[in-house]
Amino acid sequence: MKTKILRTLLSISLISVFTLNLSACGRDNDGSTDNTEAAPADETLTPIVAIDNNNEQENEEPSPTPEVIEEQKGLTKVECEERIDVLREGEAVTPADEEVLTQMAGCVAFARILDSDGMIFSEMDNADRASLRSEIIDSIIWGETPLYEKILTTVNDEYAIPVEEAEKVFRDFYGEEAFVPYEYERVENGYIYPLFADGDPWHRVEHMQYFEDDDYILFTGPSFYESNGGDQEFIGYADILFEKNTDSRYGVTLLYGRYRDEKINIVSVETSSELQASGDKTYSGNNLTDGDPTTVWAEGVKGSGVGETIVLHLDKPTSVYGVVICNGYTASCEQYRDNGFVTEASADFGDGNVVKNEVSGYWCEGFTSQDLADINRTKLELEKPVITDTIVITITGASAGEKYDDTCISEIYAY
Questions:
Q1: What is the pTM of this model?
Q2: Separation in Å, CA 341 to CA 208, 226, 264, 408, 410
């Protein structure tokens, strides 16, 4: 008797479950009845799920391909360089936010991150980002500039910036999206602190010009390597491209930077005199452009050579900012000490564009030839560049050496 009752209850349960499954197959998700005839459960459940998935996939927007994502980021390096070349063909302008642009570009130059390969600032490696961030932080802390809000604070009597505020600055400045401290950056308890460098050299852009269109601003000018020791060397022409950006507190964001691989070509040198050759040593004007600080031009007149001239002929009319004179006989300390050097000179770029300035001369025991060349460079430069193919340099002051009064110059180049 008990067995028959159990079998009856089990049969009723199975019939109830089967009936519920069939009812579910005849309803939509919202519970409404479907007018189509229900198929057996073991044939319809899987196909219904498959059809629903296909419908969902058809309604979804396709994911952007990697190429589309890359295009949405902005210009490529090649496109940035093409944009720079187009802007440089226009007329120089004075942008409304010149002070801010100059300070932002100055941070890039001082960070020493530019090279001839060029870089999109938002895609820099973290070492270069850290160098730029250091200059930005220094500007906030030490520079009285309009670049930043009052985000500087002190923590235990040390200057510091809240990390969340610094992240906003980095994003607006050069497009930093994910700040990750570099190994030597000091970030503690939600604050970022300045780093102190002792005597590190820097790069500086001078005589900058601006070119602008509806979307971009170009900052460009000759750049020099400098140090606390007084040495300086022309590096190249810095091109720094800003993208106009209304979401940035500065109205722009740094986009791309490079050193333009371009030199002014001096094809020949004329001098008013030259010292007679001695053995295998010559003192002609050709030594001024050979890139070798151990060779020199020496004037060949009686006395210190005041009034003697050097004429540089360029390969074509070129935009020129100035010249650099590497003063004295820089082959060795002994040669520098024994021979004369220039104390004042003028440079005539044509059409009345003449610059006259003192020329430094310095040596110290133990200096190598390269040391002497580094610290004895002097610029004779214009406020604005001019187009010329001839530059005339005149010695207007000179100092005799301990043994000889022959005035010497080891190198000259134009920029």
A1: 0.76
A2: 31, 22, 25, 5, 10
